[in-house]
Design brief:
Number of helices: 10
Subcellular location: Cell membrane; Membrane
Structural class: mainly alpha
Family: Belongs to the 4-toluene sulfonate uptake permease (TSUP) (TC 2.A.102) family.
Transmembrane segments: 6-32, 44-66, 78-101, 108-126, 151-175, 187-212, 224-243, 255-272
Keywords: Cell membrane, Membrane, Transmembrane, Transmembrane helix
Strand content: under 5%
Largest sheet: 2 strands, antiparallel
Protein name: Probable membrane transporter protein
Shape: globular
Length: 277
């Protein structure tokens, strides 16, 4: 890779990690469109660009999620019994997501991601403001209102499939689900961070497996995962996520969320154009 490309990937990873730490959103919704732009500019095979962008994004999330969940665990906010109920379905779903994506054309996957970005931006822009975090303590009694084990497996599988399809960490689905079941916001976010690793691990391995025999992939691609981009972005993203978390306490986050939502709409328009051309 050229020095200019390495610098660009570093900046992109840093921005994704900072935004994830500050706004509590997964880096995938930012990374996939920008990775798509870079891979397009690099002249990668058009039929593989979106698949590679999603796969590489999941690989980055695999590392950033470890950094995030470590911080949440230190504060005692992760509900590990709840994560354990969702994880089996998530692992299976995240493996199936890339297989489903492989059946789609590059245009179809770009269209899917444009819809995902639009929904995410609308949720950020018009969603209800989350309640203030509560003091971290014992597992709340409302967690007993969670569905049965089989229903939690099914829920985890849905979260995994969609996350594997779009290269995201799943927080856009798992956090609202847990909050509707009475889990306090700080526990829901922390538990969602813990679920990001099995999503990314299973999705990354699946993308390696299903992309292994795909023709015309660039050198240093491991299946659909482009290893050089993954390494550079993961380093920057892991380094910047803690700074984003600190900035959340000092900057006007609600205003920044509005700006970020507008940016997501612009990225959705880019992905839609990619799908139609």
């Amino acid at each position: 890779m050229s020095a200019g490309l390495i610098l660009l990937l570093l900046l992109m990873g840093a921005f994704g990690g900072f935004a994830a730490g500050m706004l509590g959103i997964g880096g995938g919704m930012i990374l996939v469109p920008f990775i798509t732009m870079i891979f397009t500019a690099q002249g990668f095979a058009p039929h593989a660009i979106i698949h590679m962008a999603v796969a590489t994004s999941l690989g980055v999330i695999m590392f950033t999620s470890l950094s995030s969940v470590r911080a949440h665990h230190q504060h005692g906010a992760v509900l590990w019994p709840v994560a354990a109920l969702l994880a089996p379905g998530i692992l299976l779903g995240a493996w199936c997501g890339p297989w489903i994506a492989k059946q789609l054309s590059s245009s179809g996957q770009a269209m899917l991601f444009a819809v995902f970005l639009t929904i995410s931006a609308t949720q950020i822009l018009f969603g209800k403001k989350a309640p203030a975090p509560q003091p971290v303590g014992a597992v709340p009694q409302t967690v007993t209102h969670l569905p049965s084990r089989s229903a939690m497996f099914g829920t985890g599988m849905v979260i995994g499939v969609i996350s594997g399809l779009v290269g995201a960490g799943g927080g856009f689905l798992s956090v609202p689900f847990l909050m509707r079941r009475g889990v306090p916001i700080h526990n829901a976010v922390a538990t969602s961070a813990a679920l990001g690793f099995p999503i990314a691990l299973s999705g990354t391995l699946s993308n390696i497996y299903y992309g292994w025999q795909v023709p015309d992939l660039p050198p240093y691609a491991l299946g659909f995962v482009y290893v050089p981009a993954l390494a550079v972005m993961a380093l920057a993203s892991v380094s910047m996520a803690p700074f984003g978390a600190r900035a959340a306490h000092r900057l006007p986050v609600q205003t920044l969320k509005k700006i970020f939502a507008v940016m997501l709409y612009c990225l959705a328009a880019y992905m839609l154009n990619k799908a139609l051309n």
